[in-house]
Amino acid sequence: PDAPKGGTIVFGETGGFDSLNPYILKGRAPWGIQSHVFETLMARNWDEPFSLYGLLAESIETGPEREWVAFTLRPEAKFSDGSPVTVEDVIWSMETLAEEGQPRYRNAWEKVRSIDQTGERSFRLDFSEPDSELPLIIGLRPILKKADWEGVDFAQSSLRVPTGSGPYTIGAFEPGRYIRFERNPEYWGRDLPINRGLNNFDTIRYDYFVDSGVLFQAFTAGALSVYRESSPARWASEFGFPAVTSGAVVKAEIPHGRPSGMEGFVFNLRRPIFQDWRVRDALLHAFNFEFVNQTLNGGAFPRRASYFA
């Protein structure tokens, strides 16, 4: 929690970006823009995976059956240009994301019957039926500045620099090559308990590379601060470069205890060929998992027989 402030950290990513709006289907936004530039009503604490704490919201109330949720905004909450975060911004953000944003925002919004301002800094959402998770989902909606988007087609990808309320602002960038996030010294939430020990770097930079091989070479050359390896084979065979042997690069496995998804073949059951379970079973037996896992991954991946066992 008492980490020093300052310095620059450089990450590497594959691909590129051509938009600075991460909330729509069109375009590809850069890594980090959601977490560094924009904020939500509530925020996660990864030490408590099922808990949320107020961020832009000062207080949260729910009905006895979670048939409604009410929020009150913090009076000190501000966007990076110094303007306050208002209920009008919140309502506009919720409605715009539902109407023009990615489908995941629309799906949850269909369960909301109404959203109404109840005070200068407070508002309430009523649901079509009780829902234990919906107050938390609403609390994780990004809040945008309404005035920043006036006269702008929200659904169209753009490289226009948006205004957020988060700890960083967008600095220099070149589409497809790099983007810099600069720490905002006037960030309104820097003293909140939930932010203690976070947002320490003055500059966070993401450099983009054509593929993972080039990205790895950039790391071995010292161009990146951090590298996360996803290939067990490379982890076992290619981390003997001089910076590792000298101790300049620390190679470590860091357990996190969170579900990490899966890799495999997923059958599209809408296609007639896969609708017969015997076909799927035959493909399962024909696939030589042990050989592929040992040859490509050094035997590192366990085989999952069930999602529930």
Describe the fold and architecture.
The chain is α+β, with helices and mostly antiparallel strands. The protein contains nine helices and twelve strands. It has one domain (1-228): Periplasmic binding protein-like II (D-Maltodextrin-Binding Protein, domain 2). The mean pLDDT is 94. It has a four-stranded mixed beta sheet with strand order 1-12-11-10. The protein has a four-stranded antiparallel beta sheet with strand order 5-6-8-7, with helices on one face. It has a two-stranded antiparallel ribbon with strand order 2-9. The chain has helices at 33-37, 87-100, 103-109, 134-139, 212-220, 232-237, 242-245, 277-286, 289-297; strands at residues 8-14, 39-40, 42-45, 48-54, 57-62, 68-73, 112-117, 122-127, 142-143, 168-174, 178-183, 203-209. The longest helix is centred in the N-terminal third of the chain and has 14 residues, at 87-100. Helix 2 (87-100) crosses helix 3. Helix content is 23%, strand content 21%.
